Amino acid sequence: MSLPKVRVPYLLLFPGFAFLFTFFILPIINLAQTSTQTPVKNGDTGQYEQTFAFSNYVNAFVDNKEQFARSFVFATISTLLALAIAYPLAYAIAFKSGKFKNILLVLVVAPFFTSFLLRTIAWKQILGEEGFVVPGLRSLHIISQQTTLTSTSFAVVAGMTYNFLPFMTLPLYASLERIDPRTIEAAGDLYANGITAFRRVTMPLSLPGVVAGTLLTFIPAAGDYVNAAILGSPTSKMVGNVIESRYFKIVDYPTAAALSFTLMAAILVLVTLYIRKAGTEELV
Amino acid sequence: MSQKVKDASIPTIPFKARFSRWFGRNLLRIYMVFGFTYLFIPVAYTFAFSFNDSGKSNLIWKGFTLRNWQNPCGAPEVCSALSNSIKIGLIATTFATILGTMIAFAIGRYAFKGRSASNLLIFLPMATPEIVLGASLLSLFLVFKINPGFWPTVIAHVMFCISFVVVTVKARIASLDPRLEQAAMDLYANELETFKRVTLPLVAPGIAGAALLAFSLSFDDFIITNFNSGTVTTFPKFIYVAAARGIPAQANVIGSSMFFLALILVIAGQLVNRKKTR
Fold it and tell me: In this complex, do B42 and A117 lie within 8 Å of one another by their Cβ atoms?
């Protein structure tokens, strides 16, 4: 080899990292700069200058604290719901599906390929006034005549839970599948009943999957605005909706940037705390 | 020791435990049926309404027709949006796969200064919400007076796909048996030959999986695309815009076709794999 060996990893890293630096790190730095700008006096809409107005952050947060809270509450609920739905599913695929394992795994990912927007809109129509669910529940008197399922916070959370379910199921499956079934048998041999064996052996061993799955669900859910836009109402808007409308409808870049930055920082802090607490060394 | 314990425990499983185990097993099966039904309800709905004789707005069932499937490009813009999505997906997948695989080899195969920092740089884009990625990239393009459009979208897709490629390929590299490469070296293959004839073929399935993942992420992306695509319409963007005035049934045709195409591809890939391992 003509290359000194120490350089090889750096040469391999260089093109990709140069790309990530230019199109990920630089934009984030630029976003931080934009977030403290104020409008140019007598300038056109969309013209801003740097004035280090850190008050932008305070204003952005105070004006939108409801949406912020909603983002984190909705994301937390749908992450927990997805965990509750996906864990038994992943468990069943890993341990109880025999030769159908691979096919079932493909089926978990398969809905992915119908555009997620089409599926979200399908839910909207299924749960909407013309769908079959609402009239059915009404005629059975399970819900009142006035109750609707779409345009509610409930629908937004349900939509997010549905859309991010595969992100939860796959890592859970991966960690459950890796468990040596003999360790569970051993627990049974040592007179643990099914529940104890699960609680003391299976669950701790699947924890890396739980951590990965909850992260992969929570992060996109906290920043999501599509579910809220399609399934929600003006009173169930999330911080993503605010950022989107600040950018495109109001052309208020500094507020949008301050909100984005706060959202990212909040998520990073939560994620770091969570990873610390869960004690997983491996980040990815 | 363990043998002894096992022998002692076999005949003493009480009936109640056996019953609960049996019930547990079937409870999970029943649960699986419910789980998959839940996953597939909107897919089935989308597929069913692709046969709706609906006219413009595909909201209410008006009768069965094959017309939408015979003429999937019948609705204005739907096929140009689809072709944009495919083009962007293919270009972005190619670049993201090449760049990501190189990084995966560097991190997976070498111990070097800055390795954990590199891991962090790969993790960060995945821990950043899409809306922040999209908005920050748009701000950068605006600063440099680059108009959003086709290529900015490609760049954005490469950016968020790289990390997923790295993670997928790295996992494959980590699962390789190092003795295979040592054997090649013992047989007087030099490093390049070993890489070409042993390492790369072994990692190839991981790279293919990563490329498939990158393409599906790119193809289905809406949030980042919406920020950076300007007037260029991709398939998800088309649906989002059309949703306000009613989605044409042709969109359901395309969504359903993508679903079946992906299903066939993945199952075919698994069959090929099974043949190889036999």
Answer: no
- Is A186 at the interface with chain B, CB within 8 A? yes
> Which candidate from A12, A223, A283 shows the least CB-CB separation from B106?
A12
Q: Which two tokens stand for residue B164?
A: 């997923």
pLDDT tens digit sequence for A228-255: 998 988 888 899 999 988 888 877 888 8
Scored b (16 or more CB within 10 A) or e, B165-198 reads bbbbbbbbbeebeeeebeebeeeebeeeebbeeb
Domains (range + CATH), chain A:
57-278 (1.10.3720.10)
Give the nearest partner residue to A112 out of B216, B252, B256, using CB atoms. Answer: B216
Cβ atoms B163, B100 nearer than 8 A: yes
Say how many domains are in chain B: 2
* Boundaries of domain holding B160: 76-247
pTM, whole model, 2 decimals?
A: 0.85
Give contacts of A264 with chain B, Cβ < 8 Å. 128-129, 132
Task: Specify whether B222 is located in the same domain as B243.
Answer: yes
> Given an 8 Å threshold on Cβ–Cβ distance, is A24 in contact with B133?
yes
Closest CA to B133 of B222, B20, B201, B8: B222
Other Cβ atoms closer than 10 A to B117 = 9
User: What ipTM does this complex have?
Assistant: 0.84
B45's tokens = 């709905």
Classify A2 as helix, strand or coil: coil
